[in-house]
Amino acid sequence: MLTCAMCASAKVWTLEECLRYAEQNNITLQKAGLTRQSNYEEILASKAALLPSLTATSSQKGSVTPFRESSQTIINMSGSSTDGTATVGSSASKWAYNGSYGVNAKWTVWNGWRNHNTIKKNQLAEESSIADSIVSARSIEEKIMQYYIQILYTKENIKVQKSTLEFAKVNENRGKEMVRAGVMSRAECSQLTSTRAQDEYNVVKAESDCRNYKRQLKALLQITNQEEFDVISPSATDAMALKTIPSMTEVYELAHMNRPELKKAELAVKSAEVQEKIASAQHLPTISLEGSATASNNSNTSDMPKQLYTGFNIGAGVSVSVPLIDQRATKTAVNKARIQRQQALLDIRDKETTLYSTIEDYWIQAHNNQSQYKAAKISSQAAQESYNLLSEQFKVGIKNIVELQEGKAKLLSAKQSELQAKYMTILNIKMLEFYEKK
What we know:
Elements: E1 11-13, H1 15-25, H2 27-48, E2 53-64, E3 72-76, E4 86-90, E5 95-110, H3 114-180, H4 186-220, E6 229-231, H5 238-242, H6 248-258, H7 260-280, E7 286-298, H8 304-310, E8 313-321, H9 329-395, H10 401-436
Parallel strand pairs: 1-6
Antiparallel strand pairs: 2-5, 3-4, 5-7, 7-8
């Protein structure tokens, strides 16, 4: 398992490592796993409901009658009626005790198949929780890829901004030399200083954007330590931005078959159908078998085993419960299940529309950015050559500061357009490939 805290130096993450780490550590995914376990327990409980129930009971009671008068008898101690020796005793105690013991069993033989349909519904709920877990995982993967590529883009943008800053510093120093030589005015030199300061700000902003995307990616990975976080910067080649864009129709067809959010919506339809069967069965009879075994004893005699033996009782029976009037409970439950099914069907249509719109947007953006990248690449090369020529002409005093500033602005704009179009093309192609996978 990947852990930054154990690294002696800052860990540099690949995209695959980020995806694996999120799968193992993201809290949303862990919660989804617990929901699945909970639904599985519901399946076990509903299956166990098919079995008989067995309970054991015991009741022990004692009472006292403090004002009761005891009756007296004469007991012949010697066994002879002529013997005068006798003892006076009490034959009725003021204390009374009784105990009862029992085992009761009950088995629901038939209840309109509600118990069997409950199992099916819980199984569908477990499948839905699995699909929901995959939905969360796919959503997190999508965000990780977006943040990752945004980090790559901002890191490249930092290089462009720093390169522009170096040009600005060279021109500023050259301007100061020209001021000392009396070739340039201080006002024109101040413009060069202002340009250098603006380029420094652009570098700081680009670095800030990069740190912000790294922070968002760390939060998605649930990383809370203070270690420096960075990602590996693979070379984004022209081939990656100019590769063939997948067909939108093929991407949508594959996504429609494999996307977990659609599977979850289809499971919701099946669950509503099962719920309708459960609700319809509420007006059917319920047949149960019952049995019991009981015994009791009391304080009338000290022979407890004999009391339990003679008082042992076994009973069995069948009970039938037929609902007659249920205050419209069954009809309401059936209608609500049908409404739930209609809602689930509408949810499928809504998710299909959302899926198509998302894929179409990625496809359009991929084509637009790829076309922009092709044009921006040519424009950037031309702007670079033009700016290099302007810089040389400015150094020898052929071009003035205004012309140099305009050339530099065109170069910066062209570089940024090329860089942005390149990475946005790669991102949108990656997203289309992501929606294609199973």
